[in-house]
């Protein structure tokens, strides 16, 4: 229902987490439009690979006496079905996240642990594309949240950084603890020196299904859902995601999360130098 799309802000207070729900009629109308757009987009995105598989199946039938052609068509069918299954997987992930919003089981998670898991997940991809992965962690730094979701978010950003970099490039993942106004914030940055993003696209890349270069993104197996999933996870944690980018120079994505207070922050305080 529409309730799962509510705008949610989680404000950390001294005695724990307070969740503030905000909704008004305009929000409800906007939510309904977003939902309708989403369904239309999903149908459109699913039709492409399904149509391709159907065409390829026909092609296989009519090429029955040409074993080489059959193999070629079959290989493309495999690619299209992989794409279909990736797409369905991400759509399910997105709706699961929306249902889980606000986050129900927030627990202290060590940020270095998130980075290690996210980077490990991308090692094979990085090796394939000859991209170096560097991690600058911050031992003892914790946030409150879902480990699974945060690993997925950072993993998505690292995956993109690898995908939109050239061979020999380096992708850096780092953690900083910063003051933002009165707030104590943990920033996770994923930086690449890849193709970058044009200013006109920067505002739109977090939209569902938005892809800058459809041909390149598609050839790389992108779905256009990765960044909207990242945005959703950051918001569910009371944080946000921002991007800096310069075409031809690279991009830096920053996920900012509220630093925990009370017991969860103890491991950091305990390790801070005098
Ligand atoms: P996709 O599955 O296509 O990667 P995303 O939602 O993850 O979808 O990203 C949306 C678009 O943003 C991508 O198609 C790509 O054009 C652009 N993008 C994302 N990350 C980067 C990056 N690190 N460098 C350059 N472009 C990027």
UniProtKB/TrEMBL annotation:
Domain Histidine kinase: 41-261
Record flagged with keyword Transferase: yes
Keyword Oxidoreductase: no
Alphabetic keyword roster: Kinase, Membrane, Phosphoprotein, Transferase, Transmembrane, Transmembrane helix, Two-component regulatory system
Location within or outside the cell: Cell membrane
Cofactor(s) it depends on: a divalent metal cation
Domain of life: Bacteria
Record's catalysed reaction(s): ATP + protein L-histidine = ADP + protein N-phospho-L-histidine
Top EC class of this enzyme: transferase
EC identifiers of the protein: 2.7.13.3
GO biological process: cellular response to phosphate starvation
GO molecular-function terms, A-Z: calcium ion binding; phosphoprotein phosphatase activity; phosphorelay sensor kinase activity
Name of the protein: Sensor-like histidine kinase SenX3
Species this protein is from: Microlunatus elymi
Higher taxonomy: Bacteria, Bacillati, Actinomycetota, Actinomycetes, Propionibacteriales
């Amino acid at each position: 229902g529409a309730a799962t799309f509510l705008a949610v802000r989680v404000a950390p207070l001294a005695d724990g987490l307070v969740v503030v729900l905000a909704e008004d009629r305009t929000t409800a109308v906007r939510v309904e439009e977003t939902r309708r757009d989403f369904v239309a987009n999903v149908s459109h995105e699913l039709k492409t690979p399904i149509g391709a598989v159907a065409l390829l199946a026909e092609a296989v039938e009519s090429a029955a006496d040409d074993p080489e052609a059959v193999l070629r068509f079959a290989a493309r069918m495999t690619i299209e079905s992989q794409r279909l299954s990736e797409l369905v997987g991400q759509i399910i992930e997105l709706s699961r996240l929306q249902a889980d919003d606000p986050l129900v089981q927030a627990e202290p998670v060590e940020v270095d642990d998130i980075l290690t898991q996210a980077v490990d997940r991308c090692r094979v991809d990085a090796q394939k594309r000859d991209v170096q992965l560097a991690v600058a962690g911050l031992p003892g730094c914790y946030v409150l949240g879902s480990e699974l979701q945060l690993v997925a978010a950072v993993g998505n950003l690292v995956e993109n950084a690898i995908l939109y970099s050239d061979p020999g490039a380096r992708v850096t993942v780092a953690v900083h603890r910063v003051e933002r106004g009165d707030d104590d914030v943990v920033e996770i940055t994923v930086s690449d020196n890849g193709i970058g993003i044009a200013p006109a696209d920067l505002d739109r890349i977090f939209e569902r299904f938005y892809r800058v270069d459809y041909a390149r993104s598609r050839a790389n197996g992108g779905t256009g859902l990765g960044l909207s999933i990242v945005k959703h996870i950051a918001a569910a944690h009371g944080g946000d995601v921002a991007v800096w980018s310069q075409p031809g120079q690279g991009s830096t994505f920053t996920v900012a999360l509220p630093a925990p207070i009370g017991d969860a922050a103890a491991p950091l305080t305990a390790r801070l130098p005098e």
